[in-house]
Write a structure and sequence with these properties.
Layout: E1 29-34, H1 57-64, E2 73-77, H2 80-89, E3 94-97, H3 113-122, H4 135-155, E4 160-165, H5 167-178, H6 184-189, E5 194-199, E6 202-205
Parallel strand pairs: 1-4, 2-3, 2-4
Antiparallel strand pairs: 1-5, 5-6
Helix pairs in contact: 4-5
Length: 212
């Protein structure tokens, strides 16, 4: 499901509704990776989609570009498109965690998908469509999983943690860690794949900058 249309200009820059900030361990850089382009099948829930084998060049370019650190600890969402992205990006062991999954949505195609996502991010306690997980639920789940893996990485002396997951989930996480409103404009501009980095409660490398 690719974004097709955005909201009005008054909603584009940011959205509220977040509690925060959420603290990550000092001295640890957390690198978020959005998965590569999926093979879309509207008859199946998005959580079951894998990568489109005809569009792997972007994932290979991300690996070759040097944006992701060597020697990092890796964790992926359990969704196929995330696990397959991680497998292309690294030969290191990759842990898998259901808690890093995307905001849950049922099968089907919505022409106003992007508008629904914006609505979900703005009104986080309400589902934006029948069967959708609320953004508040997704945020709590993702934050818990990320904090758990970050604390484990810090205890083991790791300097870098790479998390492979999803655009809406990561948009909510960035807002939670930085203590700022959800950045709707950043969500609109996310690439497949894409990456950003967090450290010390700040977004130290923004989405899309790995492309040069």
């Amino acid at each position: 499901m690719s974004p097709a249309a955005g909201p009005g200009a008054g909603e584009r820059a940011s959205a509220g509704g977040d509690a925060g900030p959420v603290a990550l361990p000092e001295g640890l850089a957390v690198h978020l990776v959005r998965h590569g382009r999926p093979l879309v099948d509207p008859s199946r829930p998005p959580s079951t989609w894998g990568l489109d084998p005809g569009h792997l060049d972007g994932v290979r370019a991300l690996r070759a570009g040097g944006a992701l650190p060597l020697g990092a600890r890796w964790v992926s969402s359990a969704e196929p498109k995330a696990r397959e992205t991680a497998a292309v990006l690294t030969a290191s062991p990759v842990a898998v965690d259901d808690g890093l999954g995307e905001q849950s949505r049922p099968a089907g195609w919505l022409d106003d998908y992007a508008v629904r996502i914006h609505r979900s991010l703005v009104v986080q306690e309400a589902p934006a469509a029948p069967g959708w997980e609320t953004a508040a639920s997704a945020r709590a789940r993702v934050v818990e999983a990320v904090q758990r893996h970050a604390e484990g990485a810090a205890r083991d002396g790791a300097a870098d943690l790479v998390l492979v997951g999803h655009g809406t989930a990561w948009t909510l996480l960035v807002a939670a860690v930085t203590g700022r409103p959800v950045d709707l404009y950043a969500w609109e501009r996310l690439q497949l794949p894409d990456t950003c980095s967090l450290a010390g409660g700040e977004l130290v490398r923004r989405w899309g900058t790995w492309l040069g």
